[in-house]
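Q: A reviewer asked whether we had any structural model of the full assembly, not just the individual parts. We don't, so I'm hoping you can provide one. Inputs are below.
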Amino acid sequence: MKNIIDNINKAFDHRIRLGIMSILVVNEFADFKMLKELLGATDGNLASHTKALEKEEYVKVEKSFIGRKPNTRYSATKKGREAFKKHVEAIEKLLKG
Amino acid sequence: MKNIIDNINKAFDHRIRLGIMSILVVNEFADFKMLKELLGATDGNLASHTKALEKEEYVKVEKSFIGRKPNTRYSATKKGREAFKKHVEAIEKLLKG
DNA sequence: TCTTTTACTTTGAATTTCAAAGTACTTTTA
DNA sequence: TAAAAGTACTTTGAAATTCAAAGTAAAAGA
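A: Here is a predicted structure for the entire assembly that you could use as a starting point for your response.
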């Protein structure tokens, strides 16, 4: 390892993305509304953060209809879970000095 | 508490600022060169992150000369230490689900 | 003396963040 | 049953942030 923040993942730097991942590693799925409420994010804001995590292939999106209403459901991918685990370990290590 | 990321401090979102604070809570002082090497940051990049933390009054800067060379030394303020502690606790809580 | 290195600071282009406005419905109310 | 309000997002673009290249100024080396 070259320096002390090498294993800290840039993709999880932001608190909203950190929050999304924390939710998605303990819950198999979370929909837009649930994430929005848990994180206190605005719609547009949440959409761009989930999109950023999608782009990295850390989260997967599934669109469907529940009854007649659209529903967007997010889940963490295997890649995302692994990357997040590594990130959390790096943070823990960093914070222990 | 309104939502799960409320106590996560925006000022420490970035990995370089998280790294600066981790270094400064365990070391009474760190100079520019030391931070740069430990974090693997470029000069300009490090300067702007320390400036951001200064603006929040989380770190204090002291400029002096060591021999005939300029030396910039950073330390964490009381406010910074307290804010960081709170942040770390919030992260730990978040990551435990 | 001239070149290189050290220790930062300044600059501004590129990227990211954010909320307001927009879209396309569904549901409620009168 | 027509209008108003709500739901569930998406789009947009201005504002803020990030970043490294270039700049500055003095010291060290050749």
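A: Points you may want to mention in the reply: The longest strand of chain B covers residues 59-66. Chain B has one domain: 10-96.
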